[in-house]
Specification:
Structural class: mainly alpha
Radius of gyration: 17 Å
Largest sheet: none
Order of helices and strands: HHHHH
Number of strands: 0
Strand content: under 5%
Helix content: over 70%
């Protein structure tokens, strides 16, 4: 695993994820009309960006760490992978619970629900940045076998 590339790639994925979440939050703050106009495109972009980020983490960081690391690092990687899957499922559940066609009619309920989901994803990404950086740093410090 090339840790320098992984950390650089991690930062790029996280920048894109944060950017799309910021734009999603701004859209919601602009009101129901803005959400009705932009929601389909933003949802598709969020799904693509967050999905790419998830695949990157699993394939390039978590899976290799789980198979090549000492038991403590493998456990951390496994725990982070489970949390990543849970965050992805929470996002998918939000999309399923709130169909685009239903948002305007349920705006007073949708707005706090989408804020909660976006904030949960932001916090997850922030916590994950710390954990992955620690994981990659520990893996890089290990002597080559």
């Amino acid at each position: 695993m090339d840790h320098a590339i992984s950390l650089s790639d991690l930062n790029d994925h996280q920048r894109r994820a944060r950017d799309v979440l910021v734009r999603g939050a701004a859209c919601v703050e602009a009101g129901a009309d803005a959400v009705a106009a932009q929601s389909s495109a933003l949802r598709a972009e969020m799904a693509a960006v967050l999905g790419d980020y998830q695949v990157f983490k699993h394939e390039r960081i978590f899976n290799p760490a789980m198979t090549n690391a000492d038991p403590g690092l493998a456990s951390l990687a496994r725990e982070m992978k489970v949390e990543c899957i849970a965050a992805g499922e929470a996002f998918r559940a939000h999309l399923q619970a709130w169909r685009v066609d239903d948002i305007r009619a349920a705006w007073s309920n949708y707005k706090p629900a989408v804020r909660l989901t976006i904030n949960q994803l932001r916090r997850h990404i922030d916590r994950e940045a710390e954990g992955i950086t620690a994981l990659l740093t520990a893996l890089q410090a290990r002597p080559a076998v």
